[in-house]
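Practice set, problem 2.
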Amino acid sequence: MPGAALPALDGPAEGGGMTPGSQNQPFTEVEFGGQKVTVPADGYYDRYRMNPDLDEVARDPAAGNIDFFRRFAKQMVPTRIGWGRATSCASTW
């Protein structure tokens, strides 16, 4: 949203900070495309990076129905930010 202000962090942002707002959920620092970024600690990206265990994610009630994602086989491919897992969605439509 253009012109929207970002919320202040409740705690330190480096290597274990807190989420924006008042939830006090810790962040962790991960490498993404050669850059260090903060993500929610023990969140999906922190736990799986780009290779989630769909059976484990499906057991999380917050995830909802993830059957759509099971249709797509993933393979390692080179990208502008390094190697990553991707799928060719066109082959499944």
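Problem 2, part (b): a different protein.
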Amino acid sequence: MFILPESLTKASMRKARKRHATQRHGQTAEVRSASSWTESIKARTRLFLSHLLAPIAPLAIFIPHKKAHGKGSDWNMLFLIATMVLNATLIVCVSHLY
């Protein structure tokens, strides 16, 4: 399976970079502007966890989300990944048997 990155226009890339820089600046400003010691610790913990979990953030696409039109949640991506994992597990198990 090949995963190809989404093609972005130059304007979209600049906009995403600006949004990311603004978000990072807001997080560091939150740490600096904490009025009490406990708020500072909470802000630093949030910042640390956001950096720690950044590599797995793209996996959020597999979390069920609300449907655009209609009731309930869209579970398709979660079922897709569950099927792929089950398939890979079965292939490994069968290859060890024969």
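Answer key, part (b): The first strand starts at residue 65 and ends at 66. Helices lie at 10-32, 37-52, 76-97.
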